[in-house]
Specification:
By secondary structure, the protein is of the alpha/beta class. Helices cover about 35% and strands about 20% of the residues. It is built from 20 helices and 23 strands. The two termini are about 20 Å apart.
Length: about 475
């Protein structure tokens, strides 16, 4: 089994030095997100003939740095905005391309908690959680849900470290997050505190293993961001790959014979096809669901494409005339949590030298995000302003521009990221990643690092390695 360190070695050394050489092959890659870019880059460096089809007129996929409609020097991260330093494969690419990073602050005791009409600084709540009025049990009084959560998963973390994942998956894949908390005897008030303060309420019915993998792996404890915007990472692949990318090429059908793969695609100029020995398909399964497969995939693959759950996600951004959260309230980074429709609010440091600010006014998932998506773009901005004003009245005077992105309504994504329902890791994962003849599958959904850049890179290198080693 290939380890993350093996993939890190590929980034440093190349496939040809890490694995037995195969003969040069013609490979078509569908999708120029980070998965397709990494796969294409490593195959090209190993001497293969690579062509990448990208339906949009930009690369990066769910790396999407918005520079419009904001003033010069300002930007917002509609997609990925943070990288765990524990993700050594992602960090290896940052090092390879010489990309500078700075810390991304997750928690800030100076930020706020706003629940049930009560607004407190996070520092106050951490000292006395009972201030927020959660109806917890007697034994839970005075305790933070996050601390009790850490205690609950610590034995499982130790078990994984000692014995591997198999037993934990077998025992706990059936549970949702809520079911796990109920299994541990949490009161409804403590579950509510965990959902709100730890930003988990909207995904309580998703697989427990998804959250456990993140928190057990310390994903959120030491994070960074790329100086100048996350799109610098995708753009770093362009010097090598730019001539190999066909923009505006939307895959509409795929076929294969014993000797080749044929990808049919449309552009504004009409229909075309490209033939290759192998294909790497990186598009999300909600998008692949609408592609005609002329030589049908196996029943197991079809089931995985139909059933894999993708989560909705929405972001709403404000440009502000001044950075009032810093100057007025002493908040530098981190986020505020609320039970309002905006849910989570992040204080970015983008464009500090301009004097203006970018506020991530709302970051929501699941049903919360779907509700924002049902509004017209201008309505999202107006309603978000109303919510933010409850926390920061200054926004009424300081707001200058706004933007939003709904990943579940994005025709090229169909969702923000894959997120297993209970049982889906055991039921679907092997079939998600399994090739179909000459067609390989990659993307964050074809990894266990759902929603993270590391999953995109890992799956892309796995597929590239498999193609490289074909005889």
């Amino acid at each position: 089994m290939t380890s993350i360190q093996d993939y890190v070695d590929i980034v440093k050394q190349g496939i040809s030095k890490k694995a037995k050489d195969g003969r040069p092959k013609k490979v078509v890659i569908v999708g120029a997100g980070l998965t397709g870019l990494a796969a294409g880059y490593e195959l090209l460096q190993a001497g293969h003939d690579v062509q990448i089809l990208e339906a949009q007129h930009r690369i990066g996929g769910r790396i999407y740095t918005l520079r419009e409609p904001f003033a010069p020097g300002l930007y917002a991260e509609a997609g990925a905005m943070r990288i765990p330093r524990a993700h050594t494969l992602t960090m290896a690419y940052l090092e390879k391309f010489g990309l500078k990073t700075i810390d991304f602050m997750m928690g800030n005791p100076q930020a706020y908690v706003h629940v049930g009409g009560i607004k407190r600084r996070m520092a106050e709540v951490q000292v006395n959680p009972d201030l927020m009025g959660f109806e917890t049990s007697a034994k839970e009084k005075g305790r933070l849900a996050g601390d009790i959560w850490d205690e609950a998963i610590r034995p499982l973390v130790q078990k994984v470290e000692k014995d591997g994942w198999d037993e934990v998956i077998a025992e706990y894949d059936q549970y949702s997050v809520r079911e796990f908390l109920e299994l541990k005897g949490w009161s409804e008030g403590m579950i509510e505190m965990f959902g709100l303060l730890n930003n988990q309420e909207s995904v309580m019915n998703s697989s427990f293993l998804e959250l456990f993998r993140e928190d057990g792996g310390s994903y959120y404890t030491n994070m960074c961001q790329i100086v100048g915007g996350m799109d610098h990472l995708s753009h770093a692949f362009l010097p090598a790959l730019a001539p190999r990318i066909r923009y505006g090429a939307k895959m509409v059908a795929i076929d294969q014979t014993p000797d080749e793969v044929v990808v049919h695609y449309h552009t504004p100029a009409g229909g075309f096809d490209i033939r290759a020995e192998y294909a790497i398909i990186t598009v999300p399964f909600p998008v692949l669901r609408h592609v005609e497969v002329l030589q049908p995939f196996s029943r197991a693959k079809q089931r995985a494409i139909r059933q894999l759950h993708y989560d909705a996600s929405a972001k709403i951004f404000f440009q502000t005339r001044r950075r009032f959260w810093e100057t007025d309230e002493g908040i530098y980074g981190g986020g505020t949590v609320t039970d309002l429709a905006i849910r989570n609010l992040y204080y970015t440091n983008y464009g500090q030298d301009t004097g203006r600010g970018i506020l991530l006014a709302s970051y929501t998932w699941s049903e919360d995000a779907q509700r924002w998506g049902s509004l017209l773009p201008h309505e999202r901005i107006e309603q978000a302003i109303e919510n933010v004003a409850v926390i920061h009245p200054q926004i009424m005077d300081e707001f200058e521009a706004g933007a939003s992105h709904m990943w579940h309504d994005d025709p090229y994504a169909g969702g923000a990221f894959a997120l297993f329902d209970p049982g889906q890791q055991s039921l679907l994962y092997d079939d998600i990643v399994k090739p179909e003849g000459r067609i390989h599958f990659a993307g964050e959904h074809a990894s266990l690092y759902h929603a993270w850049i590391q999953g995109a890179f890992e799956s892309g290198l796995r597929a590239a390695l498999a193609v490289h080693q074909e005889k």
